[in-house]
Design goal:
Blueprint (H helix, E strand, L loop, with lengths): L4 E4 L3 H13 L4 E5 L1 H10 L1 E3 L2 E3 L2 E4 L17 E4 L6 H8 L8 E4 L6 H9 L6 E5 L4 E3 L2 E3 L5 E5 L7 H12 L4 E3 L4 H22 L15 H20 L6 H11 L9 H7 L10 H11 L4 H15 L5
Parallel strand pairs: 1-2, 1-6, 2-5, 3-10, 6-7, 11-12
Antiparallel strand pairs: 3-4, 8-11, 9-10
Length: 319
């Protein structure tokens, strides 16, 4: 039974999830941090929707002991929600915190984080997982959202497991919205990958909010939507070569769901560009390019998006 959780990554996704656990039982959840970030969290606090939440902080810079409620133990569940380029460092920080029975859930974007984490801690500790439908916005140590989103998870092995039932039970008690996919989680993960490849990259490059891509918004920009859909179609092509059946109707499914997003909201990658932060373009455009080369499938839209976003990341060095 899962009773304690450690959050690795106090960004938009991490704090949105952590807030549910905090409201359920503030003693059950801790935030991993070290160094300057730990100092800042202690001094400034962590805020969600205008409220300061006094999370327990697990210091990754000391002996790695986990003390929820003052008792030394390993967390039952670790939720990894950092940016993809921080994952190698976070994996190192987590090593002292992973016990024999600790379960790990990765909510990173992309389709490779479970492999990276599993290579260190054991693939059997991780179901496939993702967050979909959240509209969280982050500024420093403050996160705001109107839609919490839904955690989707399921075993890569395509069957129901006791590990997954334990996760579902904890999420149910904590009132964290989730959907369990014991049979088709791999396709679900690729669906989100397709969505992110399209909307994250296009919105970041053009610095546009969701309204520009919505079919029923007065702010729709047709050409922006065409770039988004073209990038998604390249994912459909490489997914087919991987044995994953994505279709044109999956693009329509996301566009229909996007109508409920705020016109003024921005994707996480667009937020990164606007704030001058490193983006996650490597796990989107570059990954599509790698699969394209593997199977001999042209990916010109994603190649262009990748190169353009890498140039955007470097403009501060020349302007």
């Amino acid at each position: 039974m899962i009773n304690t959780v450690l959050i690795a990554g106090a960004g938009a996704v991490g704090l949105t999830v952590a807030e549910s656990f905090y409201k359920y039982d503030r003693k059950c959840v801790s935030i991993l941090a070290k160094g300057e970030r730990l100092r800042r969290y202690r001094e400034e606090g962590l805020w969600v929707n205008g409220r300061r939440l006094d999370f327990s902080l697990a210091d990754a810079g000391t002996d790695g002991t986990f003390r929820p409620g003052g008792e030394v133990s390993f967390p039952d569940l670790v939720v990894v929600a950092c940016k993809s380029h921080h994952l190698p460092e976070v994996i190192g920080d987590l090593e002292p915190f992973i016990g024999k029975n600790t379960v790990i859930l990765s909510l990173l974007n992309g389709i490779k984080s479970e492999e990276q984490i599993g290579a260190v801690f054991g693939r059997d500790k991780l179901p496939l997982a993702m967050m979909l439908g959240a509209d969280s916005q982050r500024k420093g140590s403050r996160v705001c959202f109107t839609r919490r989103g839904v955690v989707h998870f399921g075993g890569a092995e395509g069957m129901e497991t006791g590990r997954d039932r334990d996760i579902a039970g904890f999420f149910t008690r904590a009132a964290l919205p989730f959907e369990y996919h014991p049979a088709d989680m791999k396709k679900t993960l690729w669906f989100k990958f397709m969505v992110n490849v399209g909307v994250n990259q296009t919105s970041a490059l053009l610095r546009l909010p969701y309204g520009a891509f919505k079919r029923k918004s007065p702010h729709t920009i047709r050409e922006a939507g065409e770039i988004l859909e073209s990038a998604m179609r390249e994912v459909i092509a490489v997914a087919a070569a991987e044995g994953i059946c994505l279709e044109e109707k999956d693009i329509d499914r996301w566009l229909d769901s996007a109508d409920s997003l705020s016109d003024n909201g921005y994707t996480s990658m667009a937020q990164d560009v606007l704030a001058g932060r490193k983006t996650e373009v490597e796990i989107f455009g570059l990954t599509v390019m790698e699969y394209g080369k593997k199977y001999g499938i042209p990916t010109p839209v994603n190649e262009t998006l990748y190169r353009a976003l890498r140039a955007v990341e470097q403009t501060k060095n020349v302007l």
